[in-house]
Amino acid sequence: MTAAESPAGLAPVSPPGKSREPRVWKFIGTSLWGLALFGAMFAGQVTVVAYFLLGSGEPMDTSSMITLLSNGRIISLSVIMGLPAILIVLWIATRLSRTSFADYLALRWPSWKMLVAGIAALVLLMVAWEIISRVAGRESSPGFMMDVLKTARADGALWLLVFAFCVAAPVTEEFFARAFLYRGWSESFLRPAGAILLSSAVWTMMHLQYNWFFLAQVFSIGLLLGYLRYLSGSTWLVVVLHGLNNLAATVQTIWLANNS
């Protein structure tokens, strides 16, 4: 029996010194892992809400859930808890692909030129949406964010809100959408253009707490971040830009709350 052969019923044995080739999850594999990732993130976030709901002694009804989901401290902790949950599943998915975690998710730093170009593009897009919102007579900040901010400030948890929205959320969402989903889908029949569109649509559906106007804004940001992910080959670039965008939105909401 040669080194490459094995008894019947057993998997073939790789020749000495030869390891299995790394692979990328394609459309179906990426989609299924995507469901697992979303489920893990959702479970991590819901665990926090359930903990506070059970601890409050309030009945588990719609009214209690709405109250909890508008509390800035609880929302912040919920967002933060989604990060370790999704990282665990990402580690398993990349481990099974036989590709390093950093390589699979394109965790490399972009050039300063690309970072500056990305910031400039994001600023232009935000200015365009600000003009559209003023012309359409729309609010510049969602009412949902205003309520969350006020309760976080009342609980002394404003710093926690800033960390959750400007650090934890960008890492969680970009690792999920622009790192994992884009990587697999872009190497399937969708190609990069289709992967950008579909990952942006998935990312938009993660923000259904907003109305259609802000969802359109979220989708456009997703398209820009997806394109920049394609151009740069860097997930850290879109994490940084996502964080800066959320920071700007948080500062704007704080300013509007102080002047309302």
Any overview of this molecule?
This protein is an all-alpha fold and 260 residues long. The protein has one domain (27-258). Helices cover 74% and strands 0% of the residues.
Strand content: under 5%
Report the sheet with the most strands, covering strand number, pairing sense and barrel closure: none
Tell me the overall shape: globular
Poorly predicted parts: 1-14
Average pLDDT value?
Answer: 88
Q: Radius of gyration, Cα only, in angstroms?
A: 21 Å
Order of helices and strands: HHHHHHHHHH
- How many structural domains in the coordinates? 1
* Helix content estimate: over 70%
N-to-C terminal Cα separation, in Å? 81 Å
> Structural class, from helix and strand content?
mainly alpha
Secondary structure: number of strands: 0
| Distinct helical segment count | 10
Short description:
It is built from 10 helices and no strands. The protein is mostly helical and 260 residues long.
Features:
260 residues; mainly alpha; 74% helix; globular; disordered N terminus
Fold topology:
Elements lengths: L26 H30 L5 H8 L2 H25 L4 H4 L7 H24 L7 H12 L3 H29 L4 H15 L6 H21 L2 H24 L2
